[in-house]
FAD-binding PCMH-type domain-containing protein (Triticum urartu), 523 residues
Amino acid sequence: MALVLTVCFLGFFVPALASPSNDNDFLRCLSTNIPSQLVQTPRSPSFKQLLVSTIRNARFVAPATARPPLCIVTPTNASHVQAAVRCGRRHSVRVRVRSVGHDCEGLSYRSGSPNSEGFAVIDLAKLHAVRVNPQEATAWVDYGAGIGELYYHVATAAPGLGCPAGVCPTVGVGGIFSGGGIGLMMRKHGLSADNVLDATMVDAEGNLLADKKAMGDDLFRAIRGGGGGNFGIVLSWKVRLVPVPPTVTFFRVTKTMDQGAVDAVTKWQTVAPVLPDDLSVRVVVQNRQANFQALYLGNSSTAVAMMGSRFPELGVTRANCKEMSWLQYTAYIYFRDDIYNKPLDELLLNRSMTLGPFFKNKSDYVKKPLSKETLEKMFLWPEGAATGQLVLEPHGGRMGRIAADNTPFPYRSSVLYNIQYVEFWNGEGTGGKVTPDWVGSLYDFMAPFVSKDPRGAYVNYRDLDIGANKVVDGVTSYESAKVWGESYFGPENFKRLAKIKRKVDAGDYFRSEQSVPPLPSNQ
C-alpha cells in the first residue's frame, strides 16, 4: 500500500502525495487546458483561503465534518468550465459547482462524508457580470454574482425596474435562481425562477448550450427551480426585470408576548396571504418576540391605511414606516441604518463574507392556520445553549396563480406560508459534533401541523436530515432519492426531474448527497 501523508488545516484532513492515479491525471489534464493560476490544490498557498472565502457556516470548517475537494477551479470564461467537466469525465473525477457559498448543507464545496469519492469544485465567483438592457427590461446575470450586485446594477442602469429575489445581498444568483428564489416581491411578481427567460450552461459532456433552444423545454424547465448542480453548470441567466415605483415603503413592527405577539401572528396567518399583491408582510420570531417586516410598492400613507383596514391588530403607523427607493430598500432590510452612513455600492457590491456561527436550517410549508396554542409553544420552545429563529414567508398573490407544475417548485396555490427554522450555536471546542436540538425537536413537534404526504421542504434550505442518496451499481438510487426529492419538488415534479436527468446525464456525473438521480428505464 502506498504511503499516504495528511495535512491538517481548519480541521479538514487533506490527502497529500499518494492520490489515486486518476486524480493526478485529472490535475494534469486541467493544467494543460486551464491557466495554472485558476487551479488551486491543497498544496497551493491560497487553497485554504479560497475554500473558506464564501463559507458562512462554521459547521463546515470544523474537524472531520467532510472531505475537502481535490482542487478548486476558478474559471474566467466558459471554456474553462467546459475543460474542467471534460477532464473530469475523462479521468472519472466528479465536479461540484459553487457560486457564492450560501449552501445550507455546503454540498457545493464539500462532501457530507469523509469517506466519499474525490471531487473537484468549480467556483464561479469570478463570473459575476450583470448586463442590463433597459429597453428590453431584461438583464443577463452570471451565476457567480450576488443578488446585491444584481439589484445595484439593475437599479442604476434602469431606474424604475427591479428584480424579485431574496434578502441577503451576498446570496448567490446561481443558487437562489436554481432553487426557486423566495422574497418579499414574490407575491407581486413570482419567484426569481419564474422570471428567468433564458440561460447558458455547460452540460454533462462539457458542451456549451448557448440558450434555451439548445437545451430544449424540459431541461430549461428543470434548471429553473430544480436545484443547482444536478443537470449541468449554468453560467448565466437572462431575467425579466419588473416595474417598481419611485417610492416604496418598508415598515417594521415588533411585539413581545406580553404585547400580544402570539395573537398577532395567529391573525397574520390568514391576513398576509390575501393582502393586495403590492404588499408583503413576513414575520421573524426570535427571543419570544415577533418582528413583522413589510414591503409595500407605494407610499407610506397608503400602506398605513391598508394595514389599518385589514390588520388593525398590528397597529402600523407612519412612525413605523420608511419611504425610500427600491434600491435603498434592498440594502435597508439587511443593513438597516448603515445605508445612511455608507454608499449603497459599498454595501451591495461587497462580496466579502465573514465566517458566522454554527447553524442548522430546516423548513416547512403551512396549508392550514396553526392554532394559537401551537404558536405559543413555538414561541416558548426551549433553546438550551442555542438561539432559535423562525422566518415566516407569506405566499398568495401571484404565487397562487402559477400552476404547481409550471416549474419544479410546487408550493403554489395551496400554501399559506413557508417556515424556515434556523438554530445558531457556539460550537467552538466541540469539533462541530455537538449540535443543540432546538431545531430538531421543534421540527418533530410541528409534523402534525404542516404539509403532509409528503411533508414539504424548500430546496434552497437544503436539509440532509430528510434523506441522502444511495449509489447502487454506480448510479444514484431513484428510490433512495425520492425520500428527499418528493419533499422538495412533490412526487410528479421530482419524477419529471429524474426523467430529464436520465436524458441529459444518464451516467449520473453530476452527483452529490442530494442530487437528482436518473429515472430508471422501467419507470
